[in-house]
Design a protein that fits this description.
Largest sheet of chain B: none
Distance between the termini of chain B: 27 Å
Helix content of chain E: over 70%
Oligomer: heteropentamer
Number of strands of chain E: 0
Largest interface: A-D, 97 and 90 residues
Strand content of chain B: under 5%
Radius of gyration of chain B: 21 Å
Number of domains of chain B: 3
Helix content of chain B: over 70%
Radius of gyration of chain E: 17 Å
Shape of chain B: globular
Chains: A mainly alpha, B mainly alpha, C alpha/beta, D mainly alpha, E mainly alpha
Number of strands of chain B: 0
Structural class of chain E: mainly alpha
Chain lengths: ~675, ~475, ~130, ~325, ~220
């Protein structure tokens, strides 16, 4: 309790410290924040190590209910993940000197955001939770809106983010107050104790409301629309936190809903799974076809959260017939969440470094950075391979566990669950493939080959702190990839806090073992084997080559003998995704605009061809835009209610009074 | 001690009326507000320790003491800002010294009338006090003497007079019920509340309907709400702050007190249905009017309607939790809305307009004004750490706890729509580029900052209000 | 150079009348089947051991030819196929002709004929593949 | 992991390394014969590799370390799988963690490396190849993983050894509809993954029709040798896995030398047969247009889904 | 029915009829005159009740009402009208016949709405309560349906008079002090309104429909 108070206090102090003069501001705030993160992380580690929740209550804060703290191992896992991501983000921020990144509003919002992210999982009742949740939302809104003076996209992003996050918060509030209304007090433990007495319909409705509310925070389709905007427009350290820490809390919320409401009915998880599948496919498809590096990463976040929700749904679906598979799915989900936090923050920080160095986010204007920004490229490659779930990085272990739980869950499953599981696996697989397309594109077009613009050509490696920060998380991706045993104890304790762990999952330092399933995977061994083989081949390659003359010759890329080879001959991100876009034409429904202008004299001669294709978010276009247009029309129509005529105003009262008098008597 | 409450406004008002206007007079007005605040705190302490003070016509219980504190606090804010407001007006030639003097006098009268309304233990006195606020503020609304101000004050007085007349009719009918039940003092809140069970139910139902209709007009509730955006839009900023920040709540508090009587006579259902219907209607109207709002001050006015609607709904639900929320909400809304109107006034003075579309880039152009507007809007939208968040959440919890989950759902839905709308307008006003950037004087930022700080404090820390609030909520729960 | 029964060829038409191309086509067809001696046409000069050039080198193709040659990994060979490639043939002195192949890149082997018989081509290739 | 199993792994690796190019050569011979040609000797791929190993490496001026590393990764991942997979025997090293999914993903690392390298060359063809290859890869993946799910259903395990061992022990499961459907789907996957007709024509010279060939247009010398070797190893591994899933006949249950020899011969024969069948199929099939490929792959996916569903129903 | 009851009823009816006259007449002068008559009738009601109940306070209130509602307030308004003696409510929002129909309906509605009070009070006074309520509603309607600012003020005063009538009838007046207060408040209100009327005419507004600059 005291340590958490310390975290909160230091966080508030850091927030206020933003008022010091600009010269020392960032360093001072970052220093304090570092302390906050370390203390928060250490507290979480202690909870996970001792397997004892930190519980406390004070009524001197927040009128009427006070503040209630209940940091369970589940929450501690999220806090710990956040702490790691936040440390990297803070270090990155210190280097981020330009772009007015040291303004008071940004500094204080950053401090407040980090603090609230660390504390949300520690909330022990609905009021504390919602206070922290909203502080998190508000402070991150300031971060998203930070560059508002420069770009209209930022201003739009701020609105979308603010409106949708609060819409989600409204749903969460509704769900929680309904639960709290039936409990002896608003604490989560009291709610969990009383929720089983609620009628099934109420519980189902509350679950649905919470699912959508928390799902919007996690970026689940169709409530994801804010995500590509906000994540893309926020400054890099903030995007890293948004994607590496905040969306996780949406998942935390769904798990929390399960702890509060119990596993519930099958249909809950079929619905959740439906959203998960849609999000995974939609997110990965848009990631594969988008050309803006940060939007791509944001869509990939939607996709990953979709996978996480698939895992959660599997856990819920299997709970009735296969406890082992159920808890395995839960653990897999949590592994995936932590893995995602690490690799996605790596990627966002790396993308931030790129933006810092080039002022570009458009993949078609990057390229060639592997030579000018080797460290940044290396961390991006690690992050990309991890998100693509390739061994030996941490994404692989997570995805493997999810698949294992799905395979395992089939035993004893009824037909509905079987079909759902097959769909889950298929979604997982297609998503995996599309993610690979997306990230090969991101790395290949954005970092390899020839620079595609002036600014990319003159890019220079970023300051040292901005190199260190993503390197930390990238190193964690590698470490947890080859040695998954490092984290599995903590994660299984966290899952224990939700449901008793019956998975039979053990982890050595180098791999996962599922005794009951006779399944195991050993990324370290795979990595070592592959590295050894690669070294042998490298040696052979070195031994080969001609007897005389140079063994390696550098020559311009083969352009079919053309004299001039330019950067524009390379495949762009758009062209890279074109085959995929054609395959999924019906889903994406991209808008093409072909404008051919002929010369005046003859229409057989073309003077100019303008071709534009936009691949904007179809959910936004087909679902949100009409609603917004309707609201705008309604708003304009409503002006008639106050048209200035005092007679009309009085008439409202007159009519209502007469009716009321007649009715009441 | 109760009578002392009126002394300071009286003195300050007389001085303002009799002596030529100069800043010192305005400072005296601020001092008077401070005195009201301090006395309110003193009364609160005494009430907390030794129960209600006074009996008969004027009586200070916990609720009254709390409302006096709110009146004092918002008045202090408004009167402090009035000093530079009037100075600027006089210097710019928009206002003569005579007008300034009239303004200062009327503001004191306004404060006194509101204080009277909350400490009145007599339905008649309450009515007189609230009618007095209408009469006094009409000229304040028309302070600018422009055709638009004239129009606003006409609409204001006409609509409010009708409403208040209906409230008087309701009061009369309630009195009738009291007389027929042989209540000793049938206009007295305490005796009516004590004997409420004896009253004739159909008559009380009629009376309560008329009173909610009537005082609801002053509180900006449906159906007679239309004066509110016009008056708030045209009144000088400090007056708007006072009207929106406390006058509405004072009228609402009258409904709260009468609801107790209605509930004990009629049972909970009728008052609940009535207040829920009116509250939700108010919320919905406010929401649709906010969707495509084009003016900042009108936006703030409709937002006041929204908050009155929220409180009315919660009052309809009833219970100590809901009413605690309502009372805390009154305070939080008063402070934040006061700050926002004062900020909007400064925006109007400097930018020459409050049209939302013409204010683009405010945050970059006038960082302090923009930041206060942004923070204030955040507070108004019920985001933590502002107390409005806690109070809204408390009311929602009470609604859900009473089994009225659909009410909570409706309120949350409307709130989400309002939030999206205000956010969109905020984006238009605040965000965007600007060539130059002007700093604002400390004399502006400091009081508004302190008020916002207070709104945060009451949202985060239970001390010193928690006990008083629970006492006060107990009175009207 | 010992190519050990493996010869990858990159064909460049430097300005040919396509007579030689037809013969090359039949070299790799069922009758002459140069693949059986380990020769294969490839899609990239990076993969090639030898450049198979046909036709006189036109002005437009001089630079691409040179670049193709430079793009090949060492050791590399150039085969000038047909009379035109050797000395411009009937196109000699034409306004579009820059010269023979040897004027642009070093030629290791010339196969005369207009066009050369597939047999001759195959036997020439055999000298490299040792089969 | 003991010495014997390491030895077994070495045998498998040797088989795949040596046999991969020969398999490729064999398939070319079959094609040539069917086209009425004599064709190159079966050993021709090895001759090419040997020659390439002694040539100069070239590197496009715009490329980075990715370009240099990719061939190594391709061969190394294939080699890792060759050691671990149940090809000749059921007792390769690390038998307990020879996971089907791990195998698939390790091979995927090679494909990704090659695609990145292709983009690193800064040429239009490289990007085109990478784009097409990965698009197909993305569409293949669902069919593949659902097929794995179907194959793993009897045991609820994705351990590859266990699946193959189960097939060799209970031959009846091999005839189950679920198994057969999954294998049909697997065929489609293999054709796509290894770039055979009707998905890709491995012997085309026209850049614009290329898929996998376009990826490696910039490699030369030892790099090209490594890529060629790596791809032939992958083909051998895919076919080897396939034949052992179809008919795990003769596979060595232990690391006993005799059993190993039997396993070696059995695998070689089975793969040769399948290789010939594939080659015959390739000659008689036209290449599909790129944008008609999804139809084929969706067909494979549906077969796998049917496999899962029938598997669940049959239980 | 006693003389008291009859005269009381007559006075009350005059109050209501006064309200109807306001709807009926176009000329502002007539409207103000009707208001004055109504004030007299109201004072008569109070006086009758005072005599009947032997309540001196009520008699004093009757005097006050006579002074304020029959003399001062109409006088104030008359001075405004005098500035423009020919002013008419020429084109009301709801025309006169329709207004009169509405007034009739409102009266019926008042009888429905006042049932609880009639039931509680009963007797000669209670039965007249609907007339007061009808006056309130007709006044309110006049404010809605009449364009001139003056008509609106008169409508408001009709509402006040109606309420006063109800108050006298049901309770013989609320306590005198409150009655004083409320009457004075009405007076203040009318003073304020008069000032505003003057400003309106100074600003050139004759028709309330010209006050449409404030809207959304």
């Amino acid at each position: 309790m005291i340590v958490l108070a310390l975290v909160a206090g230091l966080g508030v102090l850091a927030t206020l410290t933003a008022l010091v003069p600009r010269a020392v501001r960032v360093k001072l705030v970052a220093g304090l924040l570092g302390l906050v993160e370390i203390v928060g992380g250490a507290t979480a580690i202690r909870v996970l190590a001792t397997n004892h929740a930190i519980v406390g209550h004070t009524s001197s804060l927040v009128p009427f209910t006070g503040v209630r703290i209940d940091l369970t191992p589940l929450g501690a896992l999220f806090t710990l993940t956040t702490a790691v991501v936040a440390i990297a983000a803070t270090i990155h921020w210190v280097g981020y000197r330009r772009h007015a990144m040291s303004s008071v509003s940004l500094s204080s919002a950053f401090a407040l955001f980090v603090t609230s992210l660390l504390l949300v999982p520690a909330a022990g009742d609905i009021v504390t939770f919602l206070v922290l949740w909203e502080v998190m939302a508000l402070s991150s809104l300031v971060l998203v809106a930070h560059d508002h003076a420069k770009r209209d996209e930022t201003r739009q992003a701020a609105w979308w983010y603010g409106a949708m996050t609060q819409g989600g918060a409204a749903l969460i509030t509704l769900g929680l107050v309904v639960l709290g209304g039936h409990a002896a007090n608003p604490s989560f433990s009291a709610i969990a104790a009383s929720a089983s007495h609620l009628p099934a319909a109420t519980r189902g409705a509350v679950f649905l409301v919470l699912l959508v509310g928390f799902g919007s925070k996690a970026g689940l389709v169709p409530a994801h629309v804010w995500l590509p905007r906000a994540h893309a427009e926020a400054p890099a350290p903030a995007s890293a936190l948004l994607s590496g820490a905040m969306v996780n809390l949406g998942i935390y919320g769904i798990v929390l809903a399960r702890t509060l409401l119990g596993v519930g009915a099958t249909w809950w998880w079929l619905v959740a799974g439906f959203f998960g599948v849609i999000s995974a496919l939609y997110g990965s498809l848009y990631a594969a076809t988008s050309t803006d590096l940060k939007r791509l990463l944001a869509y990939s976040t939607s996709d990953n959260m979709g996978l996480v929700v698939i895992g959660l749904s599997a856990s819920g679906l299997f709970a009735a017939h296969n406890a082992a598979a159920s808890s395995l799915a839960l653990i897999a989900t949590l592994v995936l969440v932590t893995a995602h936090a690490l690799y996605k923050s790596t990627l966002f920080l790396g993308a931030g470094s790129v933006q810092y160095a080039t002022d570009e986010r458009d993949l078609d204007r990057l390229g060639g950075l592997a030579r000018t920004m080797p460290v940044t490229t290396a961390v991006i490659v690690v992050g990309a391979l991890a998100v693509a779930a390739l061994p030996p990085l941490n994404g692989f272990g997570a995805e493997w566990l999810v698949v294992q739980s799905l395979v395992h869950g089939l035993s004893g499953a009824d037909p509905v669950t079987t079909v759902a599981t097959a769909v889950f696996v298929a979604a997982l697989a297609l998503t995996g493939g599309l993610t690979i397309v997306a990230f090969v594109k991101a790395v290949g077009v954005g970092f390899l080959g020839r620079a595609r613009s002036e600014s990319a050509e003159h890019a220079r490696e970023v300051p040292v702190s901005m190199r260190i920060a993503p390197a930390i998380t990238a190193a964690a991706c590698v470490a947890l990839g080859v040695a998954p045993g490092l984290a599995i104890t903590a994660i299984s304790r966290a899952s224990d806090a939700v449901a008793p762990n019956r998975s039979g999952l053990t982890a050595t330092l180098s791999g996962f073992h599922l005794q009951a399933l006779r399944s195991a995977v050993d990324p370290l061994a795979l990595a070592l084997g592959a590295v050894a083989a690669a070294l042998v081949v490298a040696g052979l390659r070195r031994a080969g080559g001609p007897r005389t003359g140079a063994k390696l010759r550098v020559f311009e890329p083969w352009g079919s003998g053309r004299a001039v080879t330019s950067a524009r001959m390379q495949y762009t991100a758009t062209s890279f995704a074109e085959p995929l876009q054609r395959v999924f034409d019906d889903v994406l429904a991209p808008q093409h605009d072909l404008d051919v202008s002929h010369v005046l004299e003859s229409r057989y001669y073309v003077e100019r061809v303008a071709y534009a294709s936009a691949n904007d978010d179809i959910v936004e276009r087909r679902l949100y835009r009409p609603v917004l247009a309707l609201a705008a029309v309604l708003g304009v129509r409503a002006r008639g209610l106050a048209n200035g005529s005092v007679h009309r105003y009085l008439a409202y009262g007159f009519v209502v009074l007469v009716i009321a008098l007649v009715v009441v008597s | 001690m109760v009578y002392w409450l009126f002394l300071a406004p009286l003195v300050a008002g007389l001085v303002a009326m009799l002596s030529p206007w100069r800043p010192a007079v305005a400072w005296l007005g601020a001092t008077s507000a401070l005195v009201v605040l301090v006395l309110g705190v003193g009364l609160a302490v005494r009430v907390e320790h030794s129960g209600p003070i006074g009996s008969g016509v004027l009586r200070v219980d916990a609720l009254a003491a709390f409302l006096v504190i709110v009146i004092g606090a918002v008045s202090l804010l408004a009167t402090v800002r009035s000093v530079s407001y009037l100075s600027n007006e006089v210097q710019a030639g928009h206002s003569t010294l005579r007008h300034a003097a009239l303004y200062s006098t009327l503001v004191q009268g306004f404060i006194a009338a509101m204080v009277l309304a909350v400490v009145a233990n007599n339905l008649g006195v309450l009515w007189v006090a609230i009618e007095a606020t209408t009469v006094v503020t009409t000229f304040l609304v028309g302070h600018h003497r422009t055709p638009a101000a004239l129009e606003a004050s006409w609409k204001y007085i006409i609509i409010c007079s009708v409403g208040i007349a209906v409230a008087f009719l309701g009061t009369t009918v309630l009195y009738l019920a009291g007389v027929h039940a042989h209540v000793a003092n049938p206009l007295d809140f305490t005796s009516l509340a004590a004997h409420a069970a004896l009253l004739n139910a159909p008559v009380v139902r009629l009376a309560f309907t008329l009173i909610v209709f009537g005082y609801g007009t002053k509180a900006g509730l449906v159906p007679l709400f239309s004066w509110l955006p016009d008056a708030h839009g045209q009144a000088p900023a400090p007056v708007s702050a006072l009207m929106s920040g406390v006058l509405l709540s004072v009228a609402l508090s009258a409904i709260l007190r009468l609801r107790v009587i209605a509930v004990s006579t009629l049972g909970p259902t009728f008052p609940r249905v009535l207040l829920l219907a009116i509250g939700i209607a108010t919320l919905v109207v406010a929401a649709v009017m906010l969707l495509a709002q084009r003016d900042l001050k009108r936006l703030l006015a409709y937002s006041s309607m929204e908050h009155m609607g929220i409180m009315t709904v919660a009052a309809g639900v009833g219970g100590p939790l809901a009413l605690s929320g309502v009372l805390l909400h009154i305070l939080g809304h008063g402070l934040v809305k006061g700050v926002l109107f004062l900020d909007a006034g400064e925006v109007l003075r400097l930018e020459g307009t409050t049209r939302i579309a013409r204010l683009g880039g405010l945050l970059a152009r006038r960082p302090a004004l923009g930041a206060i507007l942004a923070i204030g809007l955040a507070g108004l939208l019920g985001l933590p750490p502002f107390s409005i968040f806690v109070s809204e959440l408390t009311m929602l919890r009470a609604e859900a706890g009473a089994g009225l989950w659909w009410v909570a759902a409706v309120v949350l839905g409307v709130l989400a729509i309002i939030l999206a709308a205000i956010l969109a307008h905020g984006r238009t006003m605040l965000l965007g580029p600007s060539e130059q950037s002007t700093r604002s004087p400390v004399s502006l930022v400091a009081p508004l900052g302190v008020a916002l700080g207070a709104a945060v404090w009451f949202g985060l820390v239970a001390w010193p209000l928690a006990h008083l609030l629970s006492l006060a909520a107990g009175i009207v729960a | 150079m010992n190519l050990r029964h493996s010869l990858q060829l990159r064909h460049v038409d430097a300005g040919s009348c396509n007579g030689c191309e037809i013969e090359i086509g039949s070299v790799f067809g069922p009758v002459y089947d140069a693949e059986r001696i380990g020769a294969r046409l490839v899609a990239s000069p990076r993969h090639a051991d030898a450049l198979l050039v046909t036709g006189p080198v036109t002005h437009n193709m001089a630079s691409p030819l040179e670049r193709t040659y430079l793009a090949m990994p060492e050791p590399r060979l150039v085969i000038a196929l047909g009379d035109c490639a050797r000395d411009c043939g009937v196109f000699s002195g034409g306004y579009a002709v820059a010269g023979a192949v040897a004027d642009v890149v070093p030629v290791d082997l010339e196969i005369p004929g207009c066009p050369p018989h597939p047999d001759e081509i195959v036997s020439a290739l055999r000298r490299f593949t040792n089969r | 992991m003991n010495l014997a199993s390491l030895l077994v792994g070495a045998v498998q690796l040797a088989l795949v390394v040596l046999g991969g190019p020969l398999l490729l050569g064999l398939m070319r011979v079959v094609r040539s014969r069917l086209e009425g040609r004599v064709g190159p000797p079966v050993s021709q791929p090895w001759r090419d590799i040997a020659k390439l190993a002694r040539k100069q490496r070239t590197r496009p001026s715009e490329s980075s370390w990715i370009f240099a590393v990719a061939p190594l990764v391709l061969v190394a991942t294939a080699a890792t799988v060759a050691v671990l997979a149940p090809l000749v025997t059921l007792a390769p090293p690390l038998a307990s963690s020879t996971d089907f999914i791990a195998v698939i993903f390790v091979l995927l690392v090679g494909s990704v490396a090659l695609a990145l390298a292709a983009l690193d060359t800064a040429t239009a063809f490289g990007g085109m190849g990478a784009s097409r290859a990965l698009t197909i890869g993305a569409l293949v993946e669902p069919a593949l993983l659902v097929a794995v799910l179907a194959l793993s259903m009897p045991l609820h395990s994705t351990n590859l050894i266990a699946i193959v061992a189960n097939g060799s022990r209970h031959a009846s499961t091999l005839l189950g509809p679920s198994h057969l459907l999954a294998l049909c789907s697997f065929i489609v996957v293999i054709l796509a993954e290894s770039g055979r007709l009707p998905v890709d024509n491995p012997s085309t010279h026209l850049e614009l029709t290329m898929i996998y060939e376009a990826l490696i247009l910039e490699y030369s010398g030892p790099d090209l040798a490594a890529v060629t070797l790596g791809e032939s190893m992958r083909l051998a591994i895919w076919l080897g896995l396939f034949v052992n899933l179809v008919a795990p006949v003769g596979i060595a249950a232990t690391a006993h030398p005799l059993a190993l020899v039997v396993g070696l011969v059995a695998l070689t024969l089975k793969v040769v047969v399948v290789g010939i069948v594939v080659a015959i199929f390739e000659v008689t099939t036209a290449k599909l247009r790129l944008f008609r490929l999804p139809e084929l792959l969706a067909g494979g996916f549906i077969l796998a889904v049917l496999g899962v569903v029938t598997g669940a129903v049959m239980r | 029915m006693s003389a008291f009851a009859n005269s009381l009823a007559s006075a009350a009816v005059v109050v209501t009829v006064g309200a109807v006259v306001v709807l009926w007449r176009h000329r502002l002068r007539s409207i103000v005159a009707a208001l004055s008559v109504q004030g007299v009738a109201l004072a008569a009601t109070a006086a009758l009740l005072g005599i009947h109940e032997h309540d001196r306070g009520l008699l004093a209130v009757a005097g006050l009402v006579l002074l304020v509602k029959a003399a001062v307030v109409p006088g104030l308004l008359a001075r405004v009208v005098a500035a423009n003696p020919g002013a008419r409510e020429s084109d009301p929002l709801v025309n006169v016949p329709a207004s009169l129909v509405v007034a009739g309906l409102l009266t019926l509605g008042a009888f429905v709405a006042a049932r609880p009070i009639v039931a509680l009070v009963g007797g000669p006074t209670g039965r007249l309560v609907p007339l007061g309520l009808a006056t309130v509603l007709i006044g309110f309607f006049a404010m809605v349906a009449r364009r001139r600012a003056m008509s609106q003020v008169v409508g408001l005063l009709l509402v006040d008079n109606g309420i006063a009538l109800v108050a006298f009838l049901v309770t013989s007046g609320v306590p005198v002090i409150v009655e004083f207060g409320s009457t004075l408040d009405v007076l203040f209100g009318v003073v304020v309104l008069r000032v505003l009327l003057a400003r309106l005419s100074a600003a050139g507004f004759s028709d309330l429909d010209q006050l449409r600059s404030l809207h959304d």
